[in-house]
Amino acid sequence: MANREDHTQAEITEAREKFADVSSTTLTPARVVVMCFERIQRDLQQAEMAIIEGRISDSHQLVAHAQEIISHLLEGIEMSDWDGADGLMSIYAWSYGELLSASIRNEAGRISRVREMLDSIGGAFANAAAALAVEPESATNSSLVAKA
Prior knowledge:
The chain is mostly helical.
């Protein structure tokens, strides 16, 4: 039976790798950012629950993963591309520091505050990504109307 379980696990791993390969080549940069925020939300919600339930080690791992994603988002900010880049960088840095303190002190409330702040930013990115996804279609439709 263990052999079948190993085989099944290998199949699952292979399927995940194929999905990751296809997904990484078809996702827009905007969608990747939205997915990062979605994962941060999931990690932080689970970290809050882990603290409440006394699963401190789980909470530390979840917070560390959220911090890793925040670090990647921070690295991806192009200061020259946008006037609001400084502000966004400050929010990411604040979030990282707050999560570090929350993890050290096992404070679910502090994690919640960061999660709420990042949720509003993630929502704004999701709205912008949705608008970008609709924009090319609208541009195509308006160019068709102009030709008619």
